[in-house]
Hints:
By secondary structure, the protein is of the alpha/beta class. Helices cover 10% and strands 25% of the residues.
Amino acid sequence: AxxxxxxxxxxxxxxxxxxxxFTGLEVDLSEFDVVFWMDGRFAATVxxxxxxxxxxxxxxxxxxxxxxxxxxxFNYAAGRHPILEPLIPLRSWTLIDAGTMRPVDGAHPLAxxxxxxxxxxxxxGRLDVGSAVTGETIWxxxxxxxxxxxxxxxxxxxxxxxxxxxxxxxxx
Length: 172
């Protein structure tokens, strides 16, 4: 989908490593505008080496962008990725089978072309977090009558990040 919008996409596997193997020596992150950190499935069970964590944090603090998906909040709470604490504003992971999402800040660029008055049906997992540790809530996820975090935008040093609550099989 990103390539269809004119973006160049590189995967860690294009460079011969997977995210949980990243040491910081495999690729120069400054060559990229944004890093997507998926942290799911097998990667969720193996911590990224500390040198890789330091490299990713330095990249964002120096002005790079990061988008987080997957189980990184749960993994942080379980003691993995402690160096990346500033990049993990949502620190829980729970699968909830159905629900909706809607923006709460219609003026934010992450909500462009969406209405704060219209729920979007989403099937799949979502975070069960009532509030973010840091950052600004842009989207909420609702299920069972309770609003939960949907997407949080945050700043770290000179860089910016977004933590999207999409988990499991959620089509985000």
